[in-house]
Amino acid sequence: MTNRVWIFDTTLRDGEQSPGCSMTVAEKLKLAHKLVELGVDTLEAGFPIASEGDFAAVDAVSREFPWVQVAALARSTTGDVERAAKSLAAAKRPRIHTFLATSDIHLKYKLKKSRQQILDSAVAAVELARRYVDDVEFSAEDGARTDPNYLEEVARAVVAAGARTVNIPDTVGYSTPDEYGALIGGIVKALGDTAVVSVHCHDDLGLAVANSLAALQAGARQVECTVNGIGERAGNCSLEEIVMVMKTRHDRYPYDTGIHAEHLYAASQLLTSIITFGPQPNKAIVGRNAFAHEAGIHQDGYLKEKTTYEIIDPKSVGVPEGKLVLGKHSGRHALGQRCEELGFPLIREELDVVYTEFTARADRKKGIMDEEIVALIAEVREPRGAVAG
Ligand code: MN
């Protein structure tokens, strides 16, 4: 079995559909540029049947990045699958991602259908999707709470119908690493090399990354994740965290991805400038304090030898070097350099405007955080209200 793990980014779909995270098509495109630079394997750009904006986003991302795999989400219905196929018409590497819930609790209360009816609908949706594209992914929604025997039956059936990827989501963030690993291991064994097994974990119990890692150890080879871990409720598996576990602890998780980690911080900052909130300060990898050493004993050790308290070189994930605080006494040069380190090289005129605004704000505050600088750059480059949906 290969050790290459596919990074399926759903920041533009699962992430975008959570409170405070709506993005316009222009914003999705801007973020997609950074995600492509970051090296994600698949961009899930929207749920085309849900809105005109989602349809337009999938279409726009497909046109802008012909060499990237672009996915569109669809329920297992004819209307959804056809809408997804249409939105992907311009894509060179289209993937239709169709889903249907398989757990008894969803069958009984939400869908009011039998297991056989669900199985038939799933197979029909995959067969229909395959008439439009070669690359079809099927997700068994609430898979983690589905009877393992039935889940295996569904997985085999959708693969026989033409699915190349079978995703087993922990839709409600209920599973634990041991339980989820065992479930995934069973599906991997059942499917062998006929399909890639994928995972999609939510963070309701703070276990999305741990559950995804357990799944990789059990043979899953695609991880669905989001920048800053945004997504429904408590969010999805955090892209930066799972990638950096694989890089930092390659001895325990000997898997490789196509991610260029030095863009992680800039991707996080760009997302923050687009949506209404950033990661909490103590967020692993990309939080403001992720590499800040405060305690005296820690500072002493760190100054003698960084590795006493630092397991990741901040530069390796693109965090600007040094803890230089930018305030009202900072000059244009330092500000320009910080903007560049944050992933936004500014032309002279842009820097002039950002600098004037920056000093006005710095006068009123003790220090200006990186995310405020990024927001400022966004304002200068695109005055509010100028971006049409
Ligand atoms: Mn989800």
Key features of this structure:
389 residues, alpha/beta, TIM Barrel, 8-stranded parallel beta barrel, 15 helices, 8 strands, 12% strand, globular, disordered C terminus, binds manganese (II) ion
Could you describe the 3D structure shown?
- The chain has helices at 11-15, 25-38, 52-64, 78-87, 104-111, 115-132, 148-160, 177-191, 208-217, 239-248, 264-274, 296-304, 332-341, 348-362, 370-381; strands at residues 6-9, 42-46, 69-75, 93-101, 135-141, 165-170, 196-201, 222-225.
- By secondary structure, it is an alpha/beta fold.
- It has an eight-stranded parallel barrel with strand order 1-2-3-4-5-6-7-8, surrounded by eight helices.
- The longest helix is centred in the N-terminal third of the chain and has 18 residues, at 115-132.
- The site of manganese (II) ion has 6 residues, from loops.
Quick structural gist:
This protein is α/β, with parallel strands linked by helices and 389 residues long. The protein contains 15 helices and 8 strands. The chain folds into 2 domains: 6-274, TIM Barrel (Alpha-Beta Barrel), CATH 3.20.20; 292-388, no CATH class.
Rg, rounded, reads: 22 Å
Number of domains: 2
Strand order of the largest sheet: 1-2-3-4-5-6-7-8
Mean pLDDT: 93
Instruction: State the CATH topology of the largest domain.
Output: TIM Barrel
Highest CATH level, the class of the largest domain = Alpha Beta
Structural class by sheet pairing and helices: alpha/beta
Count up the helices.
Answer: 15
The gross shape turns out to be: globular
Secondary structure: number of strands: 8
Distance linking N and C termini: 44 Å
Q: Would you identify the regions where 5 or more consecutive residues have pLDDT less than 50?
A: 385-389
**Biggest sheet details:** 8 strands, parallel, barrel
What share of the residues lie within helices?
40-55%
Beta-strand content bin: 5-15%
The SSE string, one letter per element, is EHHEHEHEHHEHEHEHEHHHHHH
**Which ligands occur here?**
manganese (II) ion
Query: CATH homologous superfamily of the largest domain, by name?
Result: Aldolase class I
Per CATH, the architecture of the largest domain is Alpha-Beta Barrel
